[in-house]
Amino acid sequence: MEFVLKDQKINFDPQALKVIANASAGGLRDALSILDQAVAVSKDGSITLDDAYEITGSSRIDQQIDFVASLLKTDMRQAFSIISDILSSGKDPLKFAQDLLVLFKNLILIKSSPELVNSQSIDRIKKLSEDHSNRVFEKLIDLTADSLAKMKQSVRPDLYLEILAVKGSELVTDRI
């Protein structure tokens, strides 16, 4: 993607390319298609991180981290507020759950192999992982994956996202 953008003399935020690469799941054609869309929506001919989030439907990493932090603190008011913000901004709840899976993986990896964590918010991820064992994040991965499967079958995936928040908080306090 960098080669194409440099060849076309289009400025870009390297973090935007990471979001696009993640959304394309390793498919070069998909990545180039998303990149083309990002160029089309860019306001000044430069691809920004916001352009990448808009095109891919991904939530901002800060929202994901804030959501997980609210689960770990069992702050349902904050968790539901973040869900409301995500949904009101038109983000897909399924995509948010998929993004959470990547974040949970990074929370596990940061402890043993920080060089494998590819995120602009690595310091926040590191801080978030410090107070909890990998076992908690593994359970949250399982819970999120189960919720995601149910979300895909539901006409109300937002409801399962809210249930994920409640169960995730209960899980952290060992109530489930």
From TrEMBL:
<dbReference type="Pfam" id="PF22608">
    <property type="entry name" value="DNAX_ATPase_lid"/>
</dbReference>
<feature type="domain" description="DNA polymerase III gamma subunit">
    <location>
        <begin position="48"/>
        <end position="165"/>
    </location>
</feature>
<feature type="domain" description="DNA polymerase III subunit gamma/tau helical lid">
    <location>
        <begin position="1"/>
        <end position="43"/>
    </location>
</feature>
<dbReference type="InterPro" id="IPR045085">
    <property type="entry name" value="HLD_clamp_pol_III_gamma_tau"/>
</dbReference>
<dbReference type="Pfam" id="PF12169">
    <property type="entry name" value="DNA_pol3_gamma3"/>
</dbReference>
<dbReference type="InterPro" id="IPR022754">
    <property type="entry name" value="DNA_pol_III_gamma-3"/>
</dbReference>
<protein>
    <recommendedName>
        <fullName>DNA polymerase III gamma subunit domain-containing protein</fullName>
    </recommendedName>
</protein>
<dbReference type="InterPro" id="IPR008921">
    <property type="entry name" value="DNA_pol3_clamp-load_cplx_C"/>
</dbReference>
